[in-house]
Amino acid sequence: MSGPACCNNPPAAFSGEQSGQIKTIASINSYVSGNPDSNLAVLLISDVYGYEAPKLRYELWQEQKPAVEFAKPVIHALKEKGISKVGAAGFCWGAKVVVELAKDADIQAAALLHPTFVTLDDIKGVKVPVAILGAEFDQISPPELVKQFEDALQAKPEVDHFVKIYPGVSHGWTVRYRDEDVTAGKRAQEAHQDLVDWFAKCLQKAHSA
């Protein structure tokens, strides 16, 4: 289901330490990290390379699911374990999964990073707060399309949103940048911090509501 542009920059090795472990949730192998006592969770739904991509494993809370029909049981299982609010971030192909979850309000906050297959109609159907992080050089979701997404969200004042284009980077940069590419690395760290801030804002707000 992925196109050539999704696969022309495979994940590179990562020099840092991984921060979690593989667990089975709703019969799905998931890479999990973070505070085990938290009642908030964020699913990270990977690109076509899956959760084996080393840079994806470096992030805060992580659980990779390949499609909507796998993600929903995981969300249900998390809530059975005491998780009260769930956010989801989708990378590339995973953004399509997340936007479908956001349409049905299965999650409380969403983020789409260099999305693939996401359409304007998808964005119009979103019911929960959503962030869209795009690349300046992206043939799949170019800045012009991301701007259309932003315009559609601005027409939905009931849906909080955050939209940003990161200069000097291309599709997949957040988890597939090369360590020697200083610019891409800095932009990836910027995007990761924006992602953490977004979910902290949205999930804490939903939790206190």
From TrEMBL:
It comes from the Eukaryota. Residues 68-201 form the Dienelactone hydrolase domain. Pfam families: DLH. InterPro entries: AB_hydrolase_fold (IPR029058), Dienelactn_hydro (IPR002925). GO terms for molecular function: hydrolase activity. This is Dienelactone hydrolase domain-containing protein.
